[in-house]
Amino acid sequence: MLTITLWHWLVVIIYIAALVWPTARICRKIGRSRWWAALMPLPIVNIALLYFLAFGK
C-alpha cells in the first residue's frame, strides 16, 4: 500500500516542471542565471527566492 508508482512520479515531475520552467524564464528575462530556478521546489527557499528576484539589484 505504501509503494510509489509511476503515477506518483509523473505527478512529482509535473509539479517540479510547473515551478521551475516559469521561474527559469523569469530569471533569463531579468538577466540572472536560470539555475536559480532549481531552488523553487524547496519549500521555504522558494519564497526567499521570489523576494530575491523581485527586489534584488
Structural class label: mainly alpha
Q: Which of globular, elongated, flat, extended, rod-shaped describes the shape?
A: elongated
Summarize the main sheet.
Answer: none
Helix content: 55-70%
Q: Secondary-structure element order, as H and E?
A: HH
Quick overview of this protein structure:
The protein has a domain at 20-57.
Features:
single chain; 57 residues; mainly alpha; elongated
Protein architecture, described:
- The protein has 57 residues and is mostly helical.
- It has a domain of 38 residues.
- It is 61% helix and 0% strand.
- The protein has 2 helices and no strands.
- The longest helix has 24 residues.
- The N and C termini lie far apart (49 Å).
Write the layout of secondary structure elements.
Blueprint: H1 6-29, H2 45-55
